[in-house]
Write a structure and sequence with these properties.
The protein has about 70 residues and is an alpha+beta fold. The protein has two helices and two strands; from the N terminus they run H-E-E-H. The chain has a two-stranded antiparallel sheet. A hairpin with a 2-residue loop joins strand 1 and strand 2 (about 35-45). Helix 1 packs antiparallel against helix 2.
Length: about 70
């Protein structure tokens, strides 16, 4: 198997997981800073469904390209 085919399969799997299960990432933001005192907040941001769709589409393109090169 070519590397592009393997990467494509991984992208399809990750995109499918994100599409059906959803996902989020957390960022840390400074809320207040006074002298040595620093207050931070963790913010959770959901991953948009179009990102999962783009990952699936990119994975399909890579798999098709890998199969066509092989033939």
């Amino acid at each position: 198997m070519r590397a592009s085919t393997i990467v494509g399969i991984v992208l399809i799997a990750v995109g499918g997981f994100l599409f059906f299960q959803g996902g989020s990432f957390t960022t840390r933001r400074d809320v207040l800073k006074v002298g040595d005192l620093k207050v931070t907040a963790n913010e959770s941001h959901p991953i948009a469904p179009w990102v999962a769709g783009a990952a699936i589409l990119g994975g399909v393109v890579l798999v098709v390209a890998g199969v066509r090169r092989k033939a």
